[in-house]
Amino acid sequence: MKGIELAKAFYEQCGKPMLEEQFADLLPYLAAGLVGSGSECFGFDDDISADHDFEPGFCIFLPGEEVIDRKQAFALERAYAKLPKEFMGYRRAMLAPVGGARHGVIRLGEWLAEKLGNESGTLTAHEYLRLPEQALAELTNGEVFFDNYGQLTALRESLRQFPEEIRRKKLAGNLLLMAQAGQYNYTRCLKHGEEAAAQLAVFEFVKSAMHVIFLLNNCYEPYYKWSFKALRALPKLSIEAELFEYLLTTPNEGDTAEQKYDVIEGICADVIDELAEQNLTKAICGDLEKHAYSVNDSIEDAAIRNMHILAAV
Asked: Which domains does the chain carry?
């Protein structure tokens, strides 16, 4: 069973009746769901995932103390802690009195501060540029089972994707790194007889290219160990996942090295086609570096455009 299915069943059969019977007066201000850290929140969990941090549980999100005070929050925490310790063959982990890090009763503002660095959920351009992308992925993943107050849903919608100017800045920087690592440094390392360095260039190329593909799909890249699973599910350029695996798992010698360079150029060509499809570049060539600067030049906000091209990487 998927973790999000387990969470929803636990909420429907145990959590929902508890809230309706004991906290009917607070229901208009609450939200519940499973979002945040963990493969189950992305739908990436499998049988192996159940060996840690896998349990029946969900999040109850509260607004600030001006709406629900500490005494009311504590009563909710105690009621959540008293829910069945075992459900559908899975045992719940021991929780602290204020709930668990991933499940239980959570102040929305505190959760946002943990992920974003502030309780408001609003970000400046500089904050977007500095923030680890996986934090934004964790804020917008999973499923909200109900949100009577609407605050959580509104925040998630406002953070669903990068502002366009930020997306273009991130694209420009990662395109430049793709060009440097794949189209330039890979073959130079091989000419120097540095096969290990050539493989590092491959790693850098794949890392940047994957980031570019997530940006071209207008979505966030999750934590690296789930990036391939997420990539395969994207509507655009998901086929590149197989090529990335080939680049990462093959040696850098003889005919294989030549084939790998051809694969790198093929991936670059696919990316350039998508850049043109989205009207993100005016360059007409196969040199990805020129497309990187063209994307950067398309940024309307002069302050963001004039930052170093790698400022968002």
From this structure: 3-158 (no CATH), 164-305 (1.20.120)
